[in-house]
Design brief:
The structure is a homodimer of 80-residue chains.
Chain A (H helix, E strand, L loop, with lengths): L1 E8 L6 H12 L5 E14 L4 H16 L5 E8 L1
Antiparallel strand pairs in A: 1-2, 1-3
Chain lengths: 80, 80
């Protein structure tokens, strides 16, 4: 079973990495790019066969390690 | 218009960051995690109203800046 965790900065939190990307794209001639934000996707291989339980455990992993919940929000998807 | 770019390591390329995450999760008691891989999601704000053209331009951005195509692959989604 696989779990896909999407971690992104909460709206309103400054994203310097995204700003740098937008600036660099503008410099390369892509002037229609007015902003960029960067997030992470973490794909976990899980042994557990129980999807409901897995979702709860992965949420716990996010709270403890994968996301900084002060500035980031996360979303968990469980795949077959 | 928004473009969402997913960048991930090609299969077979070692992912030390993912390995560190899996190891840390195991250490926290999540022993069912047997592996992890980490990717990026870049959300771009585009002014362009032409979706087909936008997709091509974003692919060009990936080739030039957003992805290292030697070791990474990317996928572009255009959202209304």
């Amino acid at each position: 079973m696989k779990a896909v965790v999407h971690v992104e900065l909460k709206p309103g939190v400054l994203d310097p990495q995204g700003k740098a990307i937008a600036h660099a794209l503008n410099g390369l001639g892509f002037e229609d790019v007015s902003g960029a934000r960067v997030g992470k996707v973490i794909t976990l291989d899980l042994g557990d066969a129980d999807a409901a339980n897995a979702e709860q455990r992965v949420a716990e992993m996010c709270e403890k390690l994968l996301a900084n919940t002060v500035i980031e929000r996360y979303r968990v998807e469980i795949e077959g």
